[in-house]
Amino acid sequence: MSTPPLGELEQLVLLTLVRLGPEAYGVPIVDELRKHVRRPVLRPSVYLALRRLEEKGLIRSRMGEPEARRGGRARRYFEPTSLGNRVLRESQRTLAGLWDGVALSRKPGRPG
Amino acid sequence: MPREALSPPASALWLLARSLPSADREMVIGDLVELFADRLDRRQRFSRLWFCGQAVLFAVSAAFGRARREPARSPWRTRMGRFFGHLGSGFHHAVRRLRYDWRYAAGVILILAVGIGPAAAMWSVVDRVLLRPLDYRHPEQLGLIRIHLGQISNHPGLSHAEVVDVRNAGIFESVETELRQSEVSFGPATNLVSISQIGFTTGMLPMLGVTPVMGRDFTEDDFNLPAPPQAAVASVSTTGSVPGPPIRILLDYTAWQTHFGGDPNVINRLTEFSGRPAQIIGVLPRGFRLVTGRNVPRRIDVYSPLRLGEVRNSWQFPTLARLKPGGTFEQAQAGLDTLAATLRSEYPQVYDSGLRFTIAPILEDMTRATAPALRAAVAGVLLLLLIAFANATALVVARLRTRERDLAIRSAIGASRPILVGEVVLESVVLAIGGAIAGSVLALWSVVAIREMIPRTVPRWDDVAVEWNLVLYAGALAFAGLVCLGLLPMWKVMRRATWRTLGSSSVQAGRAEGTLARLVLVGSQIALTVVLGFACLQLLRSASRLNHVDLGFDPNVLALRVPYDGRRYNSPAKRGEIYQRIRDRVQQVPGVLSVGVVTHVPLGDGPMLDGYQADLARETSFDQSANYAGVTPGYFAAVRIPMLQGRDITDQENTGAQKVVVVDETLVRAVFPGVPNVIGRTLRLGWQIENAQIVGVVGHARTVEVGRIVRPQVYVPISILFPNGGAGYVTVRTAGDPLPMTRALSDAVRDAGPGRAIASVAMLTDNVAAATSTLRAVTRLVTALAVSAGLLSAIGLYLVIAFVVHQRRRSTAIRSALGATRQQVMWQHFKLGGALLLAALPIGALLSFAVSPLFGALVYGVGQRDPLSLLLALGLAIVVSLLGIYVPVRRAAAANVVTALRESV
User: Fold this and answer.
1) Chain A residues contacting B, CB < 8 Å?
2) What domain count does chain A have?
3) Cα-flanking dihedrals φ and ψ of residue B595, to 5°?
4) Domain-located, residue A100
5) Which residues of A touch B62 (CB under 8 A)?
6) Is residue A106 part of a domain?
7) pLDDT tens digit string along B605-623?
8) Range of the domain at A87
9) Alpha-carbon gap: A102 to the closest alpha carbon of chain B (Å)
10) Residue B65 forms contact with A (CB below 8 Å)
11) What interface predicted TM-score (ipTM) does this complex get?
12) What is the pLDDT at residue B555?
């Protein structure tokens, strides 16, 4: 079975879900991404990525209990599906294969 | 923190609810609300602003992101979605083009922001101060009654008997009055704090349509208290309060929160109020303020009931009245006129110099003094706004000129007119949005600045606040700008983007279309620069002069404000004794050079006015008025007011044994002209002191305004001046910096006697700074406006000259090719700018003189039509204008002849 194509942000979000485990929802996902990604991460783009991942069948979601702190609204928890895990492993393998034997200097043109 | 600040903005929630797909709505809103709560917990600022920003981001991403990225599967794929998709890509392209030409975009946005920011801010201020109705029931039916009595004209305080007369005349539905605000000590004797209090008659709250949130209002029964035994009043215990029945008081909402922690069981609690027991009977609603028009209402902590007496010659009770249903102010005024005529005939000895009442709607009465200044400021910023729009439009049109051929070619090869027009309009929309955002930021900053600038004496000053509607105002103004920026260029494109443009190849042989209108516009900008520059320089010179005025006293003195318990120290002897004790105790603090107590510090909250008369034979009203202050011995030495004749008041005189007075040189000059020695002469002072002997003459101290002598100054012993309470200022001169000694000095005052809470500690230099703050604030505002106008007129000149240079580029190139020198070419262009300057500068000068009375009250030490300021302003306008002309002219002269000819063919 062929795996669906994965954008960069989608891949990052998927990996974040694996890192956070079953209690991952919007707020910690964005926090975790911002901790690791060295460029601005816009919150709406993360939610769009989550939606696309769910439509591709790579993640699934469930609703939690309504909370007063959220104005009576429930959290939506996300976790990767088995397909999602497989896509991620493939991506890791591809990347590892490509990186194998490559050494980048810190600044091109200067030994370092 | 207000409650609404603790919840996300409703408008943002509304936007989210309508823009997000239903599947994501609960998750996204819930996450954002949670984050908002986290931010509040961490006390992060601007959380509501952050929430709005997030809502906009989500809305934009939902509208554009989905339409672009998921055309095939999106459940939203509707006609609306497609429209937004086109719009989105249109915006995308417009932003890309503007990014490529970022200097132009930044220029337009900056110009728009300079116009929009101050205009939005000023509109918000005017709305808050002038337009917004007061928070009472039918505030338009409430009026303030003023009295006119010979020299006391337009005075907002009536006497008790007059209030009763107005009530009994049946002109109004209700007539209520209040007593001036004073400071009293409050709380248990072990922990006294200083609070401000005001008294009002029992019908006040029903008349205003206000009910307490807890407890009850005053009733007539609150006055029927058993009188305290005489012996108990006379014996002042050393720590506790005077025994007697508790006075009933209402608490202000904030005072309830601060002093009682919002305790719901506060009703019926007993406490101490100005040295006597008090019972709390109610709490007033949050934000309630008693507006009386006489003085700017400051925060009031406690309200006490006021009973009307029969006194007819003490005019200190501001009186509000509510019209009868269906009645008008004209009818009420007619009724008051009849009443005044009756009173004049009934009490000829009181009203021998005339009597008249006037009534005006309370909001109008409150804002009468500020309205003209605010309107002038609005006119100024609107002018700036118009100029900004005109300049921005000129810039947009000028850019369009450079793209004319490009548009014509695209039109020729099949681009439809709506597409071309859409492109131009979308670019303008992006610029307008940029202008609105930058303008909002500038407006927020401007409101903060204006708030700092407005003198505290402006009614409703503290209502001026940074609000969301600022962004709305900025948006509305940007929309108006959009009409200029978008529609005019659009019309030009509709008209010109055809083959004709290509045919004529945009080489108009030197014909500068629309130049006259531009020249008039720029000419008026130069004139405005002169006007604002003149005002700015005049104010700057005034401020500099004011800094070097001889105040008549040395303000490097610490003043500790101490509320005073009239009931505890209820005789002149007791008051004299306590002030002597305070002075002696403070004098013992190491480092103290001299100490004195005064009731009204120079340039403080406002003077106490009363009449004086040298002719003792005359019975009634006073011809002259003076500023009164009660002092103890040592005050003149502490603030270094020079003693010119005679001596200071003594401690013995301060116990009320002898009626003595120290007057200043201004009074001596006015009352005893040519008399070399006035010591021993007598004066009749106010209605409290019949006649007093002059024991000393001091130099005049500027106690009301820094810039001028307002009235003569009369100093009486402090024990005589205060029969019923108030506050005294302990003024202390020290050897070194007094601020580190504040603690020791406060302790010394507290040690001196019971019931003394320190209300505030300040340097008199702060008062001097505050007294000149209006001038400094207006100077800052006018400087900012002048700089903006100068900048805009330079840009305007640059644009118009650049435009003309561009139009004439072909003829210039030909002239250069034929041998014209660089100087000749430059001169050709300079002539136009020079002619414009020659026409605009005299107009600016004339206008400057015409508007100079607007600043007349603030100008000090320089003439109202100061020629030096005008010359400098003209010079500045010339420099700015020459800069605007020089840049494009130099570019024209430096242009390569061949390139210019090639491009223009």
Assistant:
1) 25-27, 42-45, 47-48, 51-52, 55, 63, 67, 69-71, 73-76
2) 1
3) -135, 140
4) no
5) 44
6) no
7) 666 666 676 655 544 444 5
8) 8-93
9) 34
10) yes
11) 0.88
12) 87
